[in-house]
Specification:
This protein folds into 2 domains: 120 residues, Rossmann fold (3-Layer(aba) Sandwich); 182 residues, 2-Layer Sandwich (Dihydrodipicolinate Reductase, domain 2), CATH 3.30.360.10. The chain is built from 11 helices and 14 strands. Strands 2-1-5-6-8-7 form a 6-stranded parallel beta sheet, sandwiched between helices. The protein has a 6-stranded mixed beta sheet with strand order 10-9-11-14-13-12. Strands 3-4 form a two-stranded antiparallel ribbon. Helix 5 packs parallel to helix 7. The radius of gyration is 20 Å and the shape is globular.
């Protein structure tokens, strides 16, 4: 299995390398790929040093899988070129998510839709991933009618520039600004660009991606996305109205039994999910503060937390690659030998 990580030096690309190592992904050849300014530099993977190569060199190698985390513009230009030589691309940018010819995949929900013909596979937005992991099993049971979500998103979702801004502000050091305002001790209701409808692109990603992943365009979604000065993961306050009545004990049980979800919900003992305490460096989606909405029927509230660099990005992408291997959906003759479960 010959694998490339494209954008290998960024926050998510670095995390992808870590996740590949941790999950013992069976790799025979590894290639870190990055922009021209990084070509020739070294990165470490599985205890060995590798030299970063450029895009065309990686394409010429006709690799099995390329996991992209290099931005939408880069993906739009280069992902089709990788796919054209037979490489399966798992892309973490927004470039292909709403393309009707591309699958938008959260493995726990819809990986079974993948085929060998899917050469470019989209990894959803981090905020969307953690929400749909929690809500998809509930939709199957009760039918979701409407979702109202407010996010509390880590600065790591913006990238290293934002992390540096926060750290500089806490040290009282002037530096490059990732945001138009100070982020330390602040909350910015502004993630991505504002659109003509008054929502941000991040908020509309959650609207459209949720429907596509769950496979139901009738679900109504409205979102407010907020950046806060935290590390460790994103948090979401979610209000869900169902088509059908539900039992709260049964609902908790469904969540607790769902792969990838950990329920932390005992307010009497101050047990509830937090990004730094629970989500940081975990691949789980944590759900707590589960309660009925007392203002209307068939509605409940919950609090969803997950590490945005892991399940929200790197881990989800690697899980897609694992699924491709397990089900022999990559054009290589060595899959059954390397991945036998």
């Amino acid at each position: 299995m010959r694998i490339a990580v494209v954008g290998a030096t960024g926050l998510v690309g670095t995390k992808m390398r870590e996740v590949l190592e941790e999950r013992n992904f069976p790799i025979t050849e590894f290639y870190p790929v990055a922009s021209p300014r990084s070509v020739g530099k070294k990165v470490t993977f599985n205890g060995k040093e590798y030299t970063i190569i450029g895009m065309q060199d990686a394409i010429d190698l006709k690799l099995d899988i390329a996991i992209f985390s290099a931005g939408g513009g880069v993906s739009k230009e280069w992902a089709p070129k990788f796919a054209a030589v037979g490489t399966t691309v798992v892309d973490n940018s927004s470039a292909w998510r709403m393309d009707s010819t591309k699958k938008l995949v959260v493995p726990e929900i819809n990986a079974n839709k993948l085929t060998k013909h899917d050469k470019i596979i989209a990894n959803p937005n981090c905020s969307t991933i953690q929400m749909v992991v929690a809500l998809a099993p509930l939709h199957k049971e009760y039918g979701i009618k409407r979702i109202v979500v407010s996010t509390y998103q880590s600065v790591t979702g913006t990238g290293i520039k934002a992390v540096n801004q926060l750290e500089n502000e806490r040290k009282g050091v002037d530096g490059e600004m990732a945001y138009p305002y100070k982020i330390d001790m602040n909350a910015l209701p502004h993630i991505d660009v504002f659109l003509d409808n008054g929502y941000t692109k991040e908020e509309m990603k959650m609207v459209h991606e949720t429907k596509k992943i769950i496979g139901d365009d009738s679900i109504k979604v409205t979102a407010t996305a907020v950046r806060i000065p935290v590390m460790g993961g994103h948090s979401e306050s979610v209000n869900v109205e169902f088509e059908n009545e539900f039992d709260l004990i049964e609902l908790r049980s469904i969540l607790a039994k769902t792969n990838g979800i950990t329920v932390l919900d005992d307010p009497s003992k101050e047990v509830y999910p937090m990004p730094l305490i629970h989500a940081h460096e975990s691949d789980e989606v944590f759900v707590g503060r589960i309660r009925r909405d007392e203002t209307q029927p068939k509605t409940f509230n919950c609090w969803i937390v997950s590490d945005n660099l892991r399940k929200g990005a790197a881990t989800n992408a690697v899980q897609i690659a694992e699924y491709l291997m397990k089900h022999n959906l990559v054009d290589t003759g060595v899959l059954e030998v390397l991945y036998n479960e």
